[in-house]
Amino acid sequence: MSETEMLSAAERLKQHFSSRVLNQVRQVIDLWRQLPGSQWSAERMTDFRTGCEKLQKFAQRFEAARHEQLARALLQILHSIQPGRSPDSAQLEQLNKLIIDLSKTALRHTDDKATGVPIPEKKPVYVALSHQDQAALMAEQMQYFGLRPELQISATEFQQALQRRHPSVLVIDHDFGGPQQGVALVQQLQQSRENPLPVLFTYSGNERPALAEQLQMMRCGGVGIYNETDVHSLIGQLESLLDVIPESPYKVLVIDDSRAQSQHTSNVLNKAGMLTEVINDPLTVLDVLSGFTPDLILMDMYMPGCNGMELAKVIRQQRQYLNLPIIYLSGEEDRERQLAAMAEGGDDFLTKPVESNHLLTTVRNRIVRARQLHQLIARDSLTGLLNHTHLLGALQEAMRRNTDRPLTFVMVDIDHFKQVNDTHGHPVGDLVIRNLSLFLRQRLRKSDPIGRYGGEEFAVILPDADEAQAISIMDDIRAGFANLLHDGKSLRVSFSCGVAQWQGESLSELVSSADQALYQAKHQGRNQVVGASSLPSH
After folding, report:
1. Which of 57, 94, 298, 506 is deepest in the core (most CB within 10 A)?
2. In whole angstroms, how far apart are CA 158 and each of 172, 175, 182, 223, 320?
3. What residues does the GGDEF domain cover (predicted)?
4. In 256-381, beta strands by DSSP E
5. pTM to 2 decimals?
């Protein structure tokens, strides 16, 4: 065997074990997501612990030090939880942080690129459309977003593919194989599965299927219905379905002078995967609020020193807590007093004793709505990215945290955007903006703040990346984006990019450096990435 062949074999073996490690990462994350729904049952806890042990073993064999370190830390916390018990809030917070760190190692892009560690192939996305040309175009666009589509030509081929392997998501024409046969195929598929497969249905022409048929689609696992030409909206839905990073856990502040009652409430919430902070002295609430930053407050009505209504009024006086949900949890049964309490800043009233599922459902619903409202306030309406104000706030926070690690700020501007609007119309221009926002979200880490800086200009914050790494990452994204078809026919658009690494200067100076690098990229011919360190003044 030649030296080249030996190296090739060694590289293949390296990639094989790398794939096993990262596939195990995804399995551990999936098992973690199942734990709160099972109330941390002994069976699910055993599955999760076994998954972490396998990850540690694979990481040791592959010499993946970061994965081994995280797996060992997870196991250490799991071993500290008494048999038959669920983790307390402190343990939950530690576990969740480790899981988020672990999930970052399984992403498609970023720092892993420099290590030569390949990202394992995920389960494919099956694409089964009646119009083969449209299916091929859709599959091509999916690949640019890092997805792995597999085209199914006929109903027979589709069923044969299912016998080999089920996909992560199915994209299927509701008439695939004949009128309404796509829906029938999905119904048959779902009957053979323990957990329903997420399905995106498509249709052709200008009119959506009749309401009765849309209801059928939803009943058999449909999570979206799209015109087959609306490729990038469909890809956006796929991106959210396949996101590997778990949502940050809900945080609840429990204010109750009864230690026994507050501990019981905390235990119920912990079992559902929520982090809690308990206050038995209501006069300390303002100090705790600033450090814990809860999603919701559960508050008793009658406490020494002040009552719940008075405390709610004080909390509402502070602007940052104006939209913070407050739920009274009290033995008060008088309806008039309950309504009076809600009029003084409360959002809901639960009467003790409250059944656990009722408490959890109420808390979850309130937090979901509050987070959705926050997203609407903080994010640009067209793209869903951070708006200008909140992006700069995220940059300021990143500068505060990253005192001893590299931090890079990136400015992105779509090339010849006015020409796109003038030639193709503003709706197509808006589509290009949405596509770039989706492309950036897809190719960057969820922990990398991305914002719409204004108009056709975007900005990205890359913690733990120096200028050279940021240039490499953004240039790869630039090359991929230039291949996208935005009108489904021939419109391709590029962008230019300026990159500046933070060297301790002020926020405005850092932004100005990235902006000057962007100007240089435009001046040099566009469709390129320029680093601020290469400018004459640097």
Report:
1. 298
2. 10, 14, 11, 20, 53
3. 405-534
4. 275-279, 296-299, 302-303, 306-307, 326-330, 348-351
5. 0.66
